[in-house]
Amino acid sequence: MNIYFGCDAHKRYSMFASMNERGQTGRPVRVEHTRAMFREFLRGLPPGSPIAIESVGNWYWMIEEMERAGHEPRLANAGKAKLMMGQINKTDKLDATGLATLLRNGTLPSVWIPPRDLRDERELPRMRMSLVSVRTMLKNRIHATLAKYMIEIDEVSDVFGVKGRELLKNRLAELPPYTRQSVETQLELLDEVKAHLDQAEKEIREVVKTTPAMRLLMTIPGVGPILAVVIALEIGDIARFPSPDHLASYAGTVPRVRSSGGKTSFGKVRSDVNRYLKWALIEAANIIMMNQRAWSGTHLGQLYLRLRERKGHAKAVVAVARHLAGAVFWVLKKNEAYKEPQRSISSSQE
User: Fold this and answer.
1) Pair (189, 243) in one structural domain
2) What is the per-residue pLDDT for 294?
3) Could you tell me the residue range of the domain that residue 151 belongs to?
4) Whole-number Å distance between alpha carbons of 149 and 173
5) How confident is the model at residue 343 (pLDDT cuts 50, 70, 90)?
6) Which of 27, 105, 136, 179 is the most buried (most CB within 10 A)?
7) Residue 215, SS3?
8) Domain endpoint, select from 113, 131, 151
9) DSSP assignment of 115-151
10) Total domains, the chain
11) Above 90 in pLDDT, residue 315?
């Protein structure tokens, strides 16, 4: 008789509940989060036990231990699982039992578990993304400080380029002493972040092998070598997505829909999505936007310009990212390079 396990994981411990095929539950067990105790508990379970665990922040090491022990971990979407349990009260035992119940019934809202090597490789582009965010924050702070004191450098388009930095250095004396010190410190941090970014990109090129799928992704407008790596590693096997709409939803490029009484409204895009894949698609859309002269005659370039007039820049970029998600799906699904659409998209599709 099969036994199903639910694991309600926390930072310092996990609560395990069991349920057999007849729906009979066993005594819940609390397992402290030390490698030794976790491994000892897993060794005592029947071989190949299915274990449902929510996608909490520290699931990597627990999944690895379950796989190493020969069990079958199933990662669950935490938000959807809570709704499907339908419990009024909340305790560790109830949550663990609820996960075991969903697993037994075959209704567990499962999340893809990438292979161990892929989980490790994905940290390289994810780290790079974090560094890019830090770089953007520092640049924005410096721009804001210069604006406060009416310091404009119009001779260059990028004040952080080689010539721009030289011009900026000559203008720092116009700032009050402590403000100047703040900007100089941020410029030093910016140089450090750039060095780490260069190192991260070097490691990505050395560690992550360029696959045929990545080469196909680079034929999509706005997608270069780095974004191709991010998209490929975050998607994994495209076969797990039945349609381009599913991929677009997973990537967070589809707005929430409210339809009732014959009225339909669209809200913001969802937050419980793969934010790394979303970042990559938005970044590709921004690249198209920033190079409008080069992309103006293309389908996506025209889409951006058309939607920007009606809905503004932000919504236009997300809409382009949505269509990029569709392009990614078909490029990987058909194993073919990107082809420019023959027909323009109707307003209903936008």
Assistant:
1) no
2) 78
3) 120-208
4) 11
5) low
6) 179
7) helix
8) 113
9) -HHHHHHTHHHHHHHHHHHHHHHHHHHHHHHHHHTT-
10) 3
11) no
* Domain final position from 68, 96, 113: 113
Q: Which of 60, 105, 63 is nearest to 81 (CA)?
A: 105
The answer to whether the beta carbons of residues 34 and 61 sit under 8 Å apart is: no
d(CA 20, CA 6): 12
User: What's 64's domain CATH number?
Assistant: 3.30.420.40
- State whether 326 and 226 are in the same domain: yes
112: left (phi over 0), alpha (psi -120 to 50) or beta: beta
Tokens encoding 268: 């913001």
Per residue in 69-113, pLDDT (tens digit) is 999 999 998 888 988 988 888 899 999 999 999 999 999 999 889
* DSSP letter string, 151-163: ----S-S-TTSHH
Give 208: exposed, middle or buried? Use CB within 10 Å, 0-12, 13-18, 19+: buried
Residues 224 and 167 in one domain: no
Instruction: Identify which has the larger pLDDT, 187 or 273.
Output: 187
Q: What is the pLDDT at residue 349?
A: 45
Radius of gyration of the chain (CA): 25
Asked whether the predicted pLDDT for residue 265 surpasses 60, the reply is: no
Terminal CA-CA length for the chain: 52
Residue 149 lies in a domain: yes
Is the separation of the CB atoms in 15 and 29 below 8 Å? yes
Residue 24: the pLDDT is: 93
Say yes or no: 219 and 329 in one domain.
Answer: yes
96 & 136 share domain: no
